[in-house]
Specification:
About 75% of the residues lie in helices and about 0% in strands. The protein is globular, with a radius of gyration of 18 Å. It is built from 9 helices and no strands.
Amino acid sequence: MTGRSAHAVLPPALRVWLGLTAVLAALVVVVLGVRYADAGEPGRADARIWAAVDGVGPSWRQVALATDFLGEPVGAATLVVVTVTGCLLLRRPRAAVLVVAGAGVAVGTATLLKSLVGRTIHGDGNLSYPSGHTAFLTAFALVVALLATGRLGLGRTAGTSLVLAAALVAGAAMGWAQVVLGAHYPTDVLGGWCTALAVVPATAWLVDRSADAMGRARP
């Protein structure tokens, strides 16, 4: 294994499967975006899920609020700064770049899609699709899992399983919080989750390509 591939933030063994996952996720984002463009009310599936989680107790609502905080500016910045600091202490600048770029691209894409789709909740000024909170925490979990996979030298099956499991847990946790708090429709949450799945592998690939190109350019 060469020095460049050893430090790759997108392990070569995972590229094909995560690439396919990214394509499928992007397709889901587009389909849901077209389906709920300019809508201002829940769909049938949204209403059913909302009814199932309606009326959670105060203790669960506090859990939801704590989870929601991780997607707020202060909470998200804290997660990113702590993780970037850890990467730099471990002398993994490429990983530090991915932490910032992965989360930033996911949130930026979600914000752009909100304006393009125009779906609202609780009034015309509250754009909702896709969920930026869900996109951020899913992206963050994906990045951390990718870095752990490379660090541990996991193979295709174990690495892919770890990455997708991390994305599922993080997306489910934040998505549940957003639905319980009434901040998003369930389909917004699905769109945010798929947004992260679509952009993080591509961002990791671009970080690797850019870092390798810079390395080759050095005398």
